[in-house]
Amino acid sequence: MRFDLLSRLRHRGTALLAATLAGLAMSSGALADTYEVKLPPELSSSPKMCDYAPCKDVMPGATSFSERKGQPPFVEAYKDEAGQKKLLGYVMLSTDITDTPAYSGKPVVTLIGMDTTGRFTGVKILKHSEPILLLGIPESALIKFNNQYLGQFVGDNIEIGKSRSEEHLIGLDAITGATVTVIAQNQVMMTSGSAVAKQVGILKPVIRPQAKFAATTAAPTWAQLVEDGSVQRLVVKAEEVGLKSDGRPYMDLWFGYLNQPTIGQAILGKDGYAGLMARLKEGEHAIFIIKTAGMDSFKGSGFVRGGIYDRVQVRQDSDSFTFRDLDYVNLWGVSAAGSPAFDESAIFIIRGKGFSGAFPWKLVFLGNKIDKETSTKTFANFDKEYWLDAKYLEGGRPVVIKPDPTWLKVWKERALEIGGFIAFLLVIAAAYASRDALVRRSSRHNKWPVNVFKYTGWVVSIGFVGFYAMAQPSITQVLTWFHSLLFQWKWELFLSDPLIFVFWIFIILSTFLWGRGLFCGWLCPFGSLSELLYKIGGAIGLKRFQFHLPQAVHDKLKWVKYAVFFGLLAVSFFSMGLAEKLAEVEPFKTTFLVGITNRSWPYSLFAAGLLGLAIFMERPFCKYLCPLGAALAMPTTFRWFGLRRKDECTSCKACAKGCGSLAIDTKGNIDQRECMLCLDCMVLYYDDHACPPLAQERKRRDKAGQPLTPINGKGYFIPIHPVPADTKKGAAA
Amino acid sequence: MSTDDIKHDDQTLVPGRRKFLNTAALAGLAGAGLSVGLSSCKQEAAPTAAAPAAAPAPAAHTAGAGDLNLHPAPGQLDTYYGVWSGGHSGEVRVLGLPSGREIKRVPTFNIDCMSGWGITNESKAIIGTKADGSLKYKTGDTHHIHGSYVDGTYDGKYFFVNDKIHGRIARVRGDIFECDKITEIPNIQGFHGIFPDKRDPVDQSINRTTRVFCGNEFHIPHPNDGRDMDDPTKYKTLFTCVDAETMEVRWQCRVDGNMDLVATSYNGRLAAANQYNVEGGAHYEDMMSAEKDACVFFDVARIEQAIKDGKFVTIGDSKVPVVDGTKDANKDPKTALTCYVPVPKNPHGVNASPDGKYFICSGKLSPTATVIELTKVEEFLDGKLDDLNKSIVAEVEIGLGPLHTTYDGRGNAFTTLFLDSQIVKWNIDAAIKFHAGDKAAKYVVDRIDVHYQPGHISADMGETKEAGGQFLAVGCKFSKDRFLPVGPLHPENEQLIDIRGEKMVMLADHPVYPEPHDFVIVKREKIKTRQVFNVDDFPLAIKDPKDSGVFRTGNKVTVKLVSQAPAYSLREFKVKKGDEVTLILTNLDKVEDLTHGFAIPKYDINFIVNPQETKSVTFKADKPGVYWCYCTHFCHALHLEMRTRMIVEK
Q1: pLDDT tens across A632-675, in order?
Q2: CATH class for the region spanning B535-649
Q3: What CATH number was assigned to the domain covering residues B71-526?
């Protein structure tokens, strides 16, 4: 189809197209080569991590590396110096330490090097799933971003944004358009770095004030302990670790904190509690775990050989506490009334410095997920938060400032933009809602009362929403949405781009209220740009080159966009990655996110071609290709408020002629799925000089000397009915 | 008396069906040569016998044994520790109960080539050596074992056990279940019973074990250096007090008669020992001539005051102060150090009831149990009670050959009847009422046959004020036909009995290697064990592998080794023929359960070192050649490769 269109274009606008193409810079950004690459399974499981990862790239000068050690794991990097191995630093794989998801909802697998003083020596992305890096922002941008870490100290306060020396905050330059990705990346860098730095002693553990337990006389039952959160449950489903479910969970654990006397005595009994506390030294803490069901052991057998329990761990913020065999004490039984039967139990003693029972912590189950196809294992961690109820703490819970989740940071950072954008959307919606008033004020020759809003919408959309905020909605979001509905709904995923999030809420509401036209015709940055180009083209004298496809051709071609949409949707079920690549049928990324001059030539040519064509033909992309438009067109069928029509519209073709969207058929019906809500037909509807039935009536009344009554909501002059005199009087009174 | 169905019932496990036998047992006893002692059995005074005889078959125990967790599922743990003496095997054993699984043997007075007990220098020092460094004794007979107390119940800190043969007391640490001290008590023989005190008699604020009392059975000349050998009238016996912490002998008290078992009061004031042979006879017919023997009570605070006041002597080389507790020297109750409560006849066990009120003595040769009320004994010693006999609040017939008693904490006593081969459950309050004249009081609650001939008996926590009343173990001296035969030597049979209901229910037979005497059953919560040793607790510890090596002073050579799975720190070490070699091995592994062994072929050496533990051996390198020392205790996948060469150069 595209070629067919292009061939037509060649006749009319060869010169201009050539000029546009000439302006294109040939691409700088090669396809990001780490997008969804297949990493060797050993990378995340083999003790010899550096046999599978380019560790030397992030630790210049290193000649050998140790096996994975520690929990979370890392490797030591050595340099041969006069036959002696000298410790150079540490290399860690981000996914060993944190599974912070980036924009795609998947982690960016990053290899990080850090020297013995805690300064970053290298950062290398091994795998990412960020569509924006795939087809939009060049990988070099991320490399440039990552290079900002080199030489930085892991213990410093490093954040995205401006440096603020008074707050000892080191700022990093973000990548425009990939805010979420870099905020997540920063979290990955700092979490990974400090987890290792703490283990090797570069960073001192955070010393939290110890809890002062409130004295209570209560003897809570198991149910009460569960209710007030003193006992928490961590369930891992079989599917979550890649096993077939046989009805049992993979792991069903209950756990709690024992130092608090009320809870400890409820669980252990008075004697048991006293005995356990007698074992603990100052600053040591005990937790209990029981397994009430499950397919596997939470103790495993690693502790038999190496002395370390490798399946359970406690984390408090970024401090993790592992258990040795010597930290294990038998749990003889659970005293609390109504406690469930269990087949495995433990008391673990947290001996690491810095743990405090007053603050929230997490029990982490360190699982292995088995890939069904390859039966390779990858780490899969599951955790559950625990925080003593305020009544068990003297003075209640301490104030904990939790770092905002990535999405919230973005919302806070862009609050002004978001506010402005919402205001903008409301203004447009309000304008459209008062369209009757606006179109009545307009006429065939003066459409400004409508256009002032519409054109403002276009300009703001193109400039602010599109180019500045890069909030061009895309079919990929629809696909993601579909997948989320079917598989897993993650609010974070949708909240991570606030403007898009707000935009989508508006789009969904407006589509069901008025149809897709308000978004497509008034607010879509690319659509606005297309039509604006068309208008400008007309205004600067290219009108004679401008054309419409014949209605019959249009009526066939308009189905193409639906095919594109369903094609993408189908592909997305096989491969989201491929669907995202194919979604390049939308020239949005090229136009707004990256810039036409920054893409490789096929993309630039495509986008420029579509925009060039738009100068001569109203919205070619919107009419025939846009999968997003197709996706929105379907629910438009169920819009609440349609446009008005008159009986005469079935025979009168006046508005159909002027319809830029070619949305009015031969019978005068408006195809709301194609309609861009330009309101031209509605201007005519009330215009007694343009709407043929109205003009006829006006002329008739002029001739008959009858007054021109106001035009009613149905688009007619209010009829003049002769009435009996007395009634007339009454009415006049 | 019914005598009919004994044979039938001997073969059946149905508890309580067997009718009380009395004269039938007498007939059997005649052949055992014991009938002489039973002549006093008052057959006419056995009103209680009729009641159980008429007892119907017991209703099934509603609870059943299932909820006692008799057979723990794989991975499940027992709910009690059983701490067992091992008799003339010389050891102590730790069982899991109620499963009966043996968890550990604690070599004590014996030699054990698994652990190196009696082989390593450290264990030899505890056992005691002659001048040449060889062991003073290689034999021992552990008899009675009791735990240390805090507030009337076990604190899990220590278990004390005696050696009857050589008159020694050993202490087993409850945190590692290893023997850490052995003390030989001077001037005694036939050291039969011990009991720790429960509260300090002098300082009542110390509510825990500070002393262990020892009852001495055989009377001997003082000192036993060849004098008075042919004049048994000059033989004497001593009651001994040992300090629970230092394990030094604090004092001794000379008494009349031979002592066997010992009990202590919960308030700390009184210790008591059962006595037979108040006659002072040297042959058994003389020992059994008197109708009444005694339970001798000691006023501990008075004895210690007497020592403070200098009213003591010492015997021979011993520096231990000895006070005179004989009857003749203690006629005035108000100042008496001891008093003798008459008990018929050659009594055996004496056991304190969990409520702290009574000591119960068993008649052994009399079918009676004697209940002594402690406050009355104290009143007598305070001069407030004119007749010590009034402290006996019950003396009732319970069956033939009563020996030892345990309690369920609900007012019932369980006494082993050696001759009847039964356990009798009887109610103490009912017995007191009966004794006071209420002949309608039915004090015998139940009887159950055991297999065969029971000695000691112990219920869960039965020796503490926390007596649990769940189940009891009884040590049967003969197993006969209860286990697969393995030749003439039979194991003993330890039986478990459910005591939760009114009727006792037999739960299990367990074969045990001869010959446990006594045992205690301790709630698992009471025991707090170490997981690994502390390397700093060993003066010889080699804390850094780099400190390994061979160090020579003349012909004395010290070999310092550490073990870290799967290797010793020296791949080989050289000594010269004729050297006196001391080999020190520290196990630097910190992982729980990662114990290593060290064996030297042809040098008769093997021992183990637990994580963070240090041990040493000393031997003469008298055979030149290459000797592959290796790890005998499985430690690692490369356990077989864990070895080192001792090269003894000519």
Answers
A1: 999 998 888 888 888 888 888 788 888 888 888 888 888 888 99
A2: mainly beta
A3: 2.130.10.10
